[in-house]
Amino acid sequence: MKFKVTTNNFLDIEFFQTLQDRFAEEFGIASIITDVNGVPLTKPSNFTDFLYKSCKRL
User: Fold this and answer.
1) pTM of the predicted structure, to 2 decimals
2) pLDDT confidence bin for 19, thresholds 50/70/90
3) Which of 5, 13, 33, 35 has the greatest number of C-beta atoms within 10 Å?
């Protein structure tokens, strides 16, 4: 049996979401964490309407 290794298998996504939210708020920037293929692992933080409309996969 093959086991597919993904970032969700070994990363605590909730921890990174909290870290990202605080970072984005503190520095006043937008932030999102993606995997190597550009697939979002976290929810967008501090995104403007323009960014939401510009990003197709969110």
Assistant:
1) 0.72
2) very high
3) 33
